[in-house]
Amino acid sequence: MKPEQIEAMHLLGKKGADFGELWDTYFESAFFIHGHVCGGMPLGFRAGLAALNALGSERELNMAKLVFVETGTGHAAGCFADGTQMATGCTFGKGLIQRTEYGKWAMTLVDKDSHKAVRVSVRPEVMQSSFNSPFVKMRKEGTKPTEVPLEISKGLVKNLLQKSDDELFVISDIFNYDLPKAPKPTFELVTCHQCGEVVAANKARVKNGELICFPCSGY
Ligand SMILES: [Zn+2]
Ligand SMILES: [Zn+2]
Question: Does pTM surpass 0.85?
Answer without folding.
Answer: yes
